[in-house]
Write a structure and sequence with these properties.
single chain; mainly beta; twelve-stranded mixed β-sheet; ten-stranded parallel β-sheet; 0% helix
Length: 252
């Protein structure tokens, strides 16, 4: 029931630990952090100030690789970095070589793969998966069970509803030609995708565009339009009151 804290770990003032925490060599933890029961923080990871990490969460995990996988294990990964004032829920796994900014909420059961960069003030909901080589900007909201495929980019103020899915492979794993064409999705600033929406590989949701609930996005969506259906077609313009420039929080 005791914690393991490596001799080379640096722990800031005011930190509190649950039972069975494992803090590996050369980990840096800032001031006033809370580390829950059974948390594992892998070597060289860096945690900012005022960070909460709940039970059974793993920070800095190295990836696995099948002989059939296109992603191969690197010899040297840079450490995972967690910014200040982040809240990380229970049973979260954040892989090595992730860089996560300040004031993010990462809810229970979320997974963030290696080589992913996340900005500030994002909400990443329960059981969200963000695959590797993704870029997530600032003030985005990814809701429960949404899936962000590898090589995707979300800019700022994007909204991804529950159970939305994105994809990056048009060949479905058989033709070797597929290795030349992997491409994730792009959601530009203010773009939104609804519940159970599916976005096909390489497609772009442009600024303030909306992919409606259940839509299958087979082409790039123009700015400020709502698209619906399977395959999705233009439904109508986004109402002016819904455009992001009229809804920014001026206080922050």
């Amino acid at each position: 029931m005791k914690n393991f804290i490596a001799d080379t770990a640096q722990i800031g003032k005011g930190c509190k630990f649950g039972f069975n925490a494992v803090i590996c060599e050369d980990v840096e933890i800032g001031e006033n952090c809370f580390i829950g029961h059974n948390v594992v923080i892998h070597p060289h990871s860096k945690i900012g100030d005022n960070v909460r990490i709940d039970d059974n969460t793993v920070i800095g995990k190295k990836p696995l690789s099948s002989p059939r996988s296109i992603f191969k294990i690197k010899d040297n990964y840079s450490p995972t970095i967690i910014g200040n004032q982040c809240q990380i829920g229970a049973n979260v796994v954040i892989y090595v070589q992730c860089k996560i900014g300040n004031n993010n909420l990462i809810a229970d059961l979320a997974t963030i793969r290696e080589d992913t960069v996340i900005g500030d003030l994002n909400i990443i909901g329960r059981n969200v998966t963000i695959e590797n080589y993704c870029q997530i900007g600032n003030r985005n909201k990814l809701e429960t069970n949404s899936y962000i495929t590898a090589y995707s980019k979300l800019e700022d103020y994007c909204f991804v509803a529950p159970c939305a899915a994105t994809s990056n492979d048009n060949y479905m794993g058989r033709d070797p030609e597929r290795f030349k064409h992997f491409k994730g999705v792009t959601i530009k600033t203010g773009g939104r995708i609804g519940v159970n929406c599916t976005v096909l590989p390489g497609k772009t949701i442009r600024e303030d565009a909306v992919a409606a609930a259940g839509a299958v996005i087979t082409r790039d969506l123009p700015k400020k339009q709502i698209w619906a259906g399977n395959p999705a077609k233009n439904f109508k313009e986004v109402p002016k009151a819904q455009l992001i420039k009229y809804n920014l929080d001026k206080k922050k």
